[in-house]
Amino acid sequence: MRTLTLLVAASALAMGALSAMAADAPVAKSTAATTAPKYMAQGGRFHTQHVKKLKFSCDSCHQAGVQDVLFLRAAEPLPAGMPGQVDRAICLTCHQAPQKPTFYGPAK
Amino acid sequence: MAKFARVIDTNRCMGCRACVAACATENYYTPGAQWNAMVEYEVGTYPTVKKVFNTIGCMHCEQPACKAACDKVGAKAISKNEFGVVLIDYEKCIGCGYCAAVCPYGVPQYNSALNPLYPGKGKVAYETIPNAMRDPTHRKKVNTVEKCTFCWHKLKQAVADGKMDRIGKDQQYTPTCDLVCPVQARVFGDVDDPNSAVSKKIKESGAVQLKKNFGTAPQVYYVLTEGAKS
Amino acid sequence: MELRRRSFLKGMGALSGVAASGVSFEAVAQAAKAAPAAKATGTSQAPETKTVKTGCAICPNFCGISATVVNGVVRTIYPNPDIAPYYNHGICPKGASGMLNTYDPYRLKKPLKRTNPKKGPDEDPKWVEISWEEAFSTVTAKLAKIMAEDPRKLVWQHGQGKYLIQEQFCKGFTSAFGTPNMVHRTTLCEAARHVADDLVFGSNGIIPDLSNSKLLLNFGANYYEGEQTSRWLDWTTMEGRDKNGLKTIVVEPRLSHCAAKADEWVPVRPGKDAVVILAMAKVMIDAGTIDEEFLITYTNATSLVGADGKVLKDKDGKTPLVWDTATSAAKPYVGEVKPALKGTYTVEGKPYKPALQVFADSIQDVTPQYAEEVSGVLAATIVRLAQTFAKEARIGESITIDGQKLRYRPAVLYSFRGLEAKEFGVQNWAAGLTLNMLVGSPDAVGGLKLNNPYATPAYFDASKCEYPPQRADLRNSVYFPFSNHDIAQTPQLVALDPKAYGLPYVPEMQIFYATNRPVAAADSWKQFEGLTKTFNVTIDVVMSEICLWSDIVLPDKTYLEAWHFAPTRGTPLASHTAIRQPMTNPYNLDQDAFSILFELSKRLGIRDKFMDESNKAWGLKEVTFKPGRDYTPREAVEVIWADKTKKDFSVAMDQGFVGTLLNVKQRYLSGIEDKFKGPGKPKMKFYRDQMIDTYEKVEATVKKNDIKNLDLPHYKVALAPIPGKEHAFPTPHREAKDYPFYIVTHKRMYRNQSAFTASNAILNQALGPDAATNYVTVNSKTAKDLGIKSGDTVMIETRVGKVKGTASVGEGVRPDVIAVSFHYGTFSPGLAPAARNGTWINQVLEMHPDVVSGMVSFNDTKCKLYKA
Fold it and tell me: Does the predicted interface ipTM exceed a cut of 0.90?
């Protein structure tokens, strides 16, 4: 399995939003986090491209200990079994101009 | 032409989240798909500690990664209009979630269920307003992605009313998050006009963009308080 | 897509302007497409939109708001843009989502009757919906019986209700009914602060003149997360910092949002602030950096005090004497007398010292080093704070505003619950007032503005120390001599054993209006116990916990549905008068608290008396309530508006308020400059001799009546004329030896009080998961020692009981302190499930009220902490 050298933004210990754990009273989960779109699910196209075709290991993207604070969805529950959220800086390696498919412009 | 931009002054932001609540009511919030969110974190170690309060909505980038991904998959549901506002067309969105995957800021919110505010209790408040009575950006759709629109429904009304000079000033023509702040930590307006409040604020305060290493050229600038991340 | 330009132009009205400004037709086309929904619905009906200017009533800030209603649905709530020069520039998340409380499907909609007579934490009331007729006749029957036998048996209690229909109508009703028992919540809020004010300047209410200040020394006020006048304080602090060089230093155990944004955070051990302040005073007095002229001119710091602690009086037995340095004699401070501030003098063979000397002597051993040991604040920091405070006060300087030369003292020590929500709350805030007096900041430009000084001269006299108590809350009785602002938590304790307090009657019925009293007090389960003794009626919007112990529950209207003559907060710069007006009624409620009271008064035959007493309570002079007629809520508000503003009611409905910018005289020359300045005038109480006189009365009353449940030595300490180091050692600190941690409580912005906003779906879901619940904030080093990580369930154990919470580990709290907010963990099944998230801390807090004011001690409890 191929692993990547990663561009990981330096992250000091930060207090991101915490998941809501009720104290004694049961918490009715009236607002389940929306489930992932099927293309992003583990068997979907995104993972097929990266894991099956490009042979990424899970933890090359889902890194433990990464706390990208400036990320709106940092509080989302982790996909089952994953140690951490995906720091989008990982994607820069392959998707920043001039690399294709290009999602990001040149760093300013 | 005008290009809309915003400045958020984290020196002033005191972390109340009025802007977050106001955005939610303005934009027909559905649980799980928050358009404006507070990121807060401590800086330093006891007893020399401060806290950074930093809200994030859509950056309305000049080179939006979300649009690039959406174009690439062929859905072409994301557009950036002549005022710089990046919008998602729910009718074209195929719900692949790639925009959410590539956005450096985690902005696009995938909505799989359109959950009610009070499960089992019927519709309340804005939930009772049918889609036909709503702006297209508020006609939420299952299995699509949604995000901050710079309150485009208000900005375009300013355009239609010939009141673009009142954007950022009048409540009906200003993004709601920018007008409820108790300490006026937010400025919104036309960054193409060097004399606008937002242009002046950027210049005088040295406000910066977050995560510039992604090269998306975001149009929301931040005055960074001591220790704040960028 | 072909754009049919002309039809667009016709339909959009001002489009020629649009075309001229060079806007693309694409944009216009989009706008036209979005215009609801002429095509879609097949009608040409634009939505009916109206803007309503009104006031928010969620918290005691009373921000001016502007709501937009679209086709009858309250769509948005923004700040009222016209009120910014007078009050709030923005609003908070609760206000912005306030309509959710109105649309809350869990709220009370119909009167309810309890059919299970047992009341207890595990009892299901077995509610039955009843008609308003049955509700009114049941309640009237109970009230009529009590009114005939002994009206004092009715105890009326309100909380936020004071700020809805307003206390004046509650007073009108209870006065007409004949009960003295109208009890507000102040001892759960700021009673000790008020009473310290009362004792020092004969009235209560303070606010920094912040737009002119250079230094704000904030001992535990947290307006970025709290309430009263907050939206003005928020704005003014930021403006002051950015434009006027304002520095803020926050002294408090937790990194509140105020501390997080301050120039410096000084983490003080809970309850020990008094020694920090006294040590600062010592540093300043020793260095001579005090405003001696202020002390002489405006305060009784020059009054001669004998060895017994009493002030030396003139032959009339009333006028205090000072030492006249001009004639070397003890004289009243009149004419050409030059009073001494220091020294020892002999009068008729006995030694006397000016009060300042007494104070200085009393703090000789409250050195910065001593204060460091006790408070955890470094001695060097204390010295620096004292020097900075004295320096920034610019003692002796003046400033000219609008041609008036005014005292300029732009350093102010401010506090809210931090100093006063304590067993020795009065003494702690008195210490804060003392430091302000030492630099001359009261009523100076940039200093501490005092509200209406000397409005109640009786506060300078000894308390009546009533026994037997006439009121069920024991207000102004021997038990709480200076509880000038009611005592919220005592009615339930008295109900449990009225004889123990000498109450000459047994409370039989309680009416609760917009209060969830037991949840909000300390040692809460004891409060609930008291509720089992009476027939209870609750008027509220939601099924709060107190409803569960009620016999009849009556639904009230929210502020978006009701007519109120609104309370407002003044600032140092402006005042305003406002109403609240209805804009919706989604659940078709017939009644609100006013109409309920009115109907009850009619059925009891006291309608005209109710309205007449309301005239008095409101202070109506020219336009008054008339006998012989009914009043709707709107009509009642119209009367008050007419009398108070002399303006047409259409002004109220169009604008929501009228505002006044205060002139220099109103801002700076109507307070102590008018009441206390110079020879021959009364003086602020730097030395509160009325406390000593009161203690003597307490002692005499206890002895005369053989009162067993009053701890005299404790009262002697609490009723000291000046603050001392003993006031930094509340009961839990002295007694709870095996409980190593201090608990501090605090507010958060995402909910208010206990039940009203707890079901708000926006607040619970849209603000982020960390707003949906609360946490036990633990210092990172402490957490490491205890093996606790963020997210772990921990147990907080006090001498009262145990409660669980979710740990949040970080740097923003002292290692020996845990911080838990209010507002969460409520248990009523009548609220939304999300309301119950989190920890309800009040139930494990020890109850040691400040015996001076009755204030509940929210910040004195000690605990054990461990992983659950």
Answer: yes
